[in-house]
Design a protein that fits this description.
27% helix, alpha+beta, Aminopeptidase, globular
């Protein structure tokens, strides 16, 4: 029988099922503001839509903790004379997973649509050999061309449809990247009381299109230390035969990031994260991600030579609507982030 989670699953489901593509994170932002209102000392937003909830500490030393609100999606680029919708991607899609998916087109009203897939036995040999590309996607809204033209236009947004559900002790759905980490920072903000340092919990925008929100935010809040939370690859599946390519494993705990393609985390920061995990008996693993970037790099690129660290939640099937994480890994992530922040005094020397 599945066990009880030590966190509020209904809030996690609300966050992951909300819609919010890069630059249009409004629905997620509303949830974040609501949750911050009960747990932090002050909340503010900036011109890009980043939301920062601050808990004031006993010193001027400050730590930024970031997780992004946006999910991959699309923007309408054309409506054909026949009423089919063509799109431009907002974020990195593997077009192979888009066949036969259900979507919502956010036009004058929300419209359910499907990405059609031509039956394989009617494909020509040339069509069978052609690689899938997002530019070749056509969304069928089940309405006549005149109705579609009235309701949908260039610039309207499109999101993939999926609910979030439990699968044993695992959680599966869309937008776990990165709402499951956004959930972790909201949960940590609720648990922390009277920190020694000021903590800025940041819900960032536009990560999926180039870490843009974090880059602007790094300048605005100018932290002494930054820690980002994001999902990471868990290729612990039969299709990936080499264990070295798994990166992380579900159920083995939270992941302390050592590197990805955008950042090499500060050695003294990831060492202290590891020490805290060991001292607190928190299950953890180390992450070396060969490809993919996170908000961690945004702080180091724009806010100067800041020490940075990152905590990741291992997740299977990234950038699909069946992203899957382990409930125990989520608990470990919340526990490590909270313990790390509560033990931060501002006296640790992270310089090299």
């Amino acid at each position: 029988m599945p066990r009880e989670f030590d966190f509020e699953f209904d809030l996690l489901r609300e966050l992951t099922e909300a819609r919010g593509v890069p630059g249009y994170e409004d629905d997620v932002r509303e949830v974040v503001r609501r949750e911050f209102a009960e747990s932090v000392d002050r909340v503010r937003s900036d011109a890009m839509g980043n939301v920062v909830g601050t808990i004031e500490g006993d010193s001027d030393y400050s730590v930024a903790v970031a997780a992004h609100m946006d999910e991959i999606g699309f923007m309408v680029r054309h409506v054909t004379d026949e009423g089919f919708v063509q799109v431009d991607p907002l974020g990195g899609f593997d077009a192979r997973v888009l066949r036969a998916q259900r979507v919502t087109v956010h036009g004058d009203e929300d419209l359910t649509g499907v990405i059609g897939s031509v039956p394989p036995h009617t494909l020509t040999e040339e069509q069978q050999e052609k690689d899938d590309e997002v530019k070749d996607v056509f969304i069928d809204l089940g309405r006549d061309a005149e109705t579609v033209a009235e309701l949908v236009g260039v610039g309207d947004l499109v999101t993939l449809d999926q609910t979030t559900t439990r699968m044993g002790d695992r959680i599966t759905g869309k937008a776990l990247d990165d709402r499951i980490c956004l959930f972790a920072i909201l949960e940590s903000a609720r648990r922390i009381e009277d920190p020694n340092v000021t903590v800025h919990f940041a819900a960032t925008v536009q990560e999926e299109v180039g870490l843009r929100g974090a880059q602007a935010l790094g300048v605005d809040i100018d932290p002494d230390l930054a820690v980002a939370l994001d999902v990471t690859v868990a290729n612990d599946v039969p299709q990936v035969g080499d264990a070295a390519d798994a990166v992380t494993e579900l159920g083995e705990g939270t992941a302390v990031k050592l590197k990805d393609s955008s950042v090499i985390t500060s050695p003294k920061v990831h060492s202290r994260l590891t020490e805290v995990a060991e001292a607190e008996g928190i299950d953890h693993q180390h992450e070396v991600l060969p490809a993919g970037g996170t908000d961690t790099a945004g702080f180091q690129n724009t806010a100067g030579a800041k020490p940075v660290g990152a905590i990741s939640i291992p997740t299977r099937y990234l950038h699909t609507v069946t992203e899957t994480a382990d409930g125990g890994d989520v608990e470990a992530t919340i526990d490590l982030l909270t313990a790390f922040l509560e033990s931060e005094t501002g006296d640790h020397d992270y310089t090299l």
